Amino acid sequence: MLETFFRTHSYLVEHFNAPVRRGLMDTIDWSYRLIGIKGPRGVGRTSFLLQYAKENFDPNLRQCLYINLNNFYFQGRGLVDFAGEFVKAGGQVLLADQVFKLTDWREQLCECYHKFPRLRIVYSTTSVEPADPDATELSSISRTYVLHGFSFREFINLQTDSNFQPFTFDTLLNNHQHILKSILPKARPWQYFQDYLHHGYYPFFLENRNFTEALLKAMNMMIEVDLLFNKQVELKYLSRIKRLLYLLAVDGGQAPNVSRLAETIGTSRATVMNYLKYLEETRLINMVYREGDTFPKKPAAAMLHDTNLIYAVYSPQMSEQLIMETFFVNTLWRHHTITKQHREGYYRVNHTTDICVCDRLRRTKAAPDTVFARYNVDVGRENEIPLWLFGFLY
Question: How far is CA 241 from CA 246, 248, 391, in A?
Answer without folding.
Answer: 9, 11, 30
